[in-house]
Design goal:
This is Bacterial FdrA protein. The protein is α/β, with parallel strands linked by helices and about 70 residues long. It is built from two helices and three strands, in the order βαβαβ. It has one domain: Succinyl-CoA synthetase domains (Rossmann fold, 3-Layer(aba) Sandwich).
């Protein structure tokens, strides 16, 4: 399991719940609060997705974020 998230409690909660279920996490990557804005264009998310796609140990990917931005780049 790998997770991408904006900084904060979302990634912490996700990792805690996965651990409580007896599973492991290969990576937990914080993206920065404005990475998904149109101005930034998701550069950290795209870089992380590229890295994780090459990691054979990461079988599941969770993407956690709060939509606080007026316009997302997606």
């Amino acid at each position: 399991m790998a997770s991408l998230a904006l900084p904060g409690t979302g990634i912490q909660e996700l990792c805690s719940q996965i651990a409580l279920a007896g599973e492991g996490i290969t990576h937990a990557i914080g993206l920065g609060g404005r990475d998904l804005s149109r101005e930034v264009g998701g550069i950290s998310a795209l870089t992380a997705l590229e890295m994780l796609s090459a990691d054979e140990k990461s079988e599941v990917l969770a993407f956690v974020f709060k939509n606080r931005l007026p316009k997302l780049c997606v």
